[in-house]
Amino acid sequence: MPIDIQNLSYTYLRGDRPVLNDISVSLPAGSMLVITGPSGSGKTTLCRAMAGILSHLYSGRLEGSISVKGKDIMAYDGVEELYYEVSMVFDDADAQLIFTTVGEEISTSLRNRGFSRSTTEEELVRILGLLEIEDLVDRPPYTLSGGQKQKAALAATLALGTDILILDEATSELDEAARGVVFSLLRQLADEGKTIILVEHMIDEAALYADACILLEDGRITASGSAEEVSRRIQESLHPVRRRTTTANGDRLIEMQDLVHCYGDLRAVDGVNLTLRRGEIIAIIGENGSGKTTLVKHMNGLLRPTEGSLLISGTRCHDQSVSLLSRHTGLVFQNPDTMLFEDTVRKEVAFGLKNIGRDTGCIEAVLAEVGLGGREEVNPRHLSRGERQRLALACVIAMGQDVFVLDEPTTGLDPVESLQIMEILMRLADEGHGIVMITHNPGLATTYADRVIRMNNGRIVSIEEA
Amino acid sequence: MQEIMQYIPGDGIFHRIHPLTKLVFTVILVGLAVLTGDLLILSGLLIAVYLAALVGGLSRGLTEQIPLLVILGGMLVLFTVLTMQGGEVILTLIPAAVPLIGGALPVTSGALLFGTILALRFSVMLFAFQLLVISTRPGELVMTLRQLRMPIDYTLMFLIALRFIPTLQREGIRISEAQLARGYSPGDGFIGKVRGLRPVILPLIFNSLGKADTLGMTIDMRGYRRGKAEPDPISFGRLDGIVITAVSLLAIMVVAVPLM
């Protein structure tokens, strides 16, 4: 048995209660397991247990047994011996790219296995081909998109050639097509006899490839079986989707005509026509690098059109400053940690309000609206990822702009947290705001948006009305 | 965006010679800059590094650093003048006519000369190091350091420092865009600018610290500290010989000239 866990409980050092509680899992060779569950349910901790990190690098309290390939995990000489058997891809791809090009990253893993220079070259080409990233070989990490970084980190880990491969939310920034490529590759590796463990929030897609799925809740396995069964159970526990009470009216908040944006010779946005009306939710989908983020950065003046015209709340925005335009459009970036810096939730929301000279009396009400009522004095860094995402949203909606733009607001969030964000957005649209969200989750887009816009190579290729 | 200390692909002389040769070139130049205190020799060394970059087609990589050098050099001279006195008083920063404190903060010829020497010395070091870094793939540089039997932890530290410079630059831009979107505008004047850095610097520090844990686990789990990769044997070409000879001649001249 490649991985056998019996009655595992784990409490982090200085933790007051176990993060994992009496977990037993056995994985045969050639199997692919999906682990899912809400944020904070212990998925990452379970992955770290399987990779030997808890036993060898952390000093919490571990009870029960973990064996890797029939040998007790403590009998290995640290993770540096385990690396011949188990490899793991973490959720932060950027921190896993240590070398200065993708090619070097992968080659170093290969050379470390003792491969000769020529075998390394051959293997490098093969691995790049598996993930369809041949064109990235000479690219430094800082030039890659989030999805490309995740593929590069996975490639460098595949190069280690271990029999057990763990992916901890390592596909969260991939678009639908890229996820398909990765999942079918993982299935192929499992069919060749490897053992694959995949932590995923969007299990509907992974269900097509996996053999089994477990649902973790509060550190315990609360459901196990086929991925379809577990997925059905999760869907049943979610509240039914609320219908919108209003629809878009005539006011045009954003009007783009033949908008072009060039980075040097690259036309990142290439002739886009788009109108956002009051009370409307628009979802923008498309592959990594299709121009989605470049497009929305025009909506608050962070980027200016190279050609074409752009009206924000009826005003031509070409010569307006960002701080002026930010009174019309609020933008929430994908990663809430790019904006949070104060030491309390209250100060964090007050920062934006003070910047535009608004009264800070609304803070409690706004925090209650995003489900953070009563948390005013908490340090933002002590909140969970989902809570930080809602705080980032609160910071922007408190400023009361007409338009809210969100770049992938549900990345890294579980289905319940994603639903909470969508509920907030629907409420804002009902109140008459215009909403634009970029998402890699097509299900979310078609369920909640009035229009779904697909982009490819900087152009709008399809518009779907709800 | 201009990248600091990043490899520039090319096919010039500096790209073709062995990283060890470049390392020797850099170490000798830095050594000479430290050993000599002669204004003319330091200027000569600076010109020599620039000419070497020009021949290697990398002069732009150095000239882009000139604004930074001027600022840092100016500050070095200023601090030296303020904290050191020697030789003749050329002028006083506070004119003698000012009551009570008139004639304070004298600028002396000795301090000015020493400050200029420090600034030039610093420029030679920075140019030489910049030339090494922009003409060598970091992976090759690390391999060379390993060939020299430098401990793997130090080579990884060096590599990670180089690798994350542009990432931090970009992250800084992303954070400042996120704050701009919240209506933030950096204050006016020097104090305003410094106070205005807080919303950008703090997330940058927190996010970088957040990466350190994953980075450490990745290094361990990929076995970089205990890998089987053996460094290739060092092989020099004709061009390496020429560069080593040239830099050795330069070193002999620098040592010999003051003796003559």
TrEMBL record, chain A:
Q: What PANTHER family has UniProt attached to this entry?
A: ABC TRANSPORTER ATP-BINDING PROTEIN MA_1418-RELATED (PTHR43553:SF21), HEAVY METAL TRANSPORTER (PTHR43553)
So what does this one do?
Probably part of an ABC transporter complex. Responsible for energy coupling to the transport system.
| Source species taxonomy | Archaea, Methanobacteriati, Methanobacteriota, Stenosarchaea group, Methanomicrobia
Keywords (alphabetical) are: ATP-binding, Nucleotide-binding, Transport
Give the Gene Ontology MF terms in alphabetical order. ATP binding; ATP hydrolysis activity; ATPase-coupled transmembrane transporter activity
Please tell me whether the keyword Nucleotide-binding is annotated for this protein. yes
Every ABC transporter domain range: 3-243, 254-466
Sorted alphabetically, which Pfam families does this protein's record hold?
Answer: ABC_tran
Places the protein is found: Cell membrane
**One GO term describing the cellular component:** ATP-binding cassette (ABC) transporter complex
NCBIfam families for this protein: PRK13648.1
Which protein is depicted?
ABC transporter domain-containing protein
UniProtKB/TrEMBL annotation, chain B:
Q: Where in the cell is it found?
A: Membrane
Mind listing the UniProt keywords for this protein, alphabetically?
Answer: Membrane, Transmembrane, Transmembrane helix
Primary site of residence? membrane
Which segments cross the bilayer? 23-53, 65-82, 113-136, 241-259
One Gene Ontology cellular component = plasma membrane
InterPro entries the UniProt entry points to? ABC/ECF_trnsptr_transmembrane (IPR003339)
Pfam annotation, one family: CbiQ
**Bilayer topology annotation:** Multi-pass membrane protein
Q: Which domain of life is it from?
A: Archaea
UniProt keyword Membrane, yes or no: yes
Question: Can you name this protein?
Answer: Cobalt transporter
Q: Which organism is it from?
A: Methanocalculus chunghsingensis
